[in-house]
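Progress against Task 2.4 (sequence-to-structure conversion) is shown through the following example record, which the project officer requested during the mid-term review.
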Amino acid sequence: MRNFLEEEAGRAAARAERLRDWLRQAVSRLRGGGVEVVALKGAALAFFHYEEPSLRPMGDLDLLLREARDLERATAALVGAGWIALFDTPRHRVFARPDERMARPAAEDFAGNGIRGIQAYDFRLLARARGALAPEISSNEKERDAAPLLFAADAVERLFPNTFEELFQSSLADRVPADLRAAAARLPSLRYTRPSRGWTRTLLTLIEGSLPKARFFARTVFPGLGEVRANVAPGASGVGLVAAWVRVLARRVGAALRVRA
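Structure tokens generated for the chain above:
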């Protein structure tokens, strides 16, 4: 175990240095092109809040544009600096360096999979420095996303008590039915502690109302082309992308039928 951790520490340190260089290059290139940008998540925390960036491993860099309309200008700037625009997902445009490969570039979902331990510790780190956290959330976000936000906050609290202010948690809890919160509380907090099967069924237990459940189930069974490209067939297009979509659909329909049986 000691040898393994030493090897991992060395790899994490080397990866952090590469990411630091790429972050500097990307931000410099974007701002030089008149695009204002801010680093998010690990890209902000590793280099500004952790004592050593290698202590906060991450797979990629998340950047947020101040203006959505700057996306095409940002793309041109990054491509001009050597990045490759791989594909779009519903929330991201994904880029890579020519020598980088992503085996499974997909957004991770807490409700279905659990929270990464390092991401839970991110909140604890900030709470130790600033006191219990009360993130600013708009009324629209509370209305639309109160349940997943509360599920994640509750999971972090179970791991690191007193990370969030009680008023913040109660403001979310007021908008989430007690039975949904109880269902989420029964799930293990950490990623890789969930059952390997039953992802769709787990998510359905955490959604309120028949219509939202039906919408989620339809999206789960019928994948979008962008989702297929991101998760299964990076770089595919045309007939190849359609063939990958059909394979994913057949696999999901078969799984849904087995669940019903």
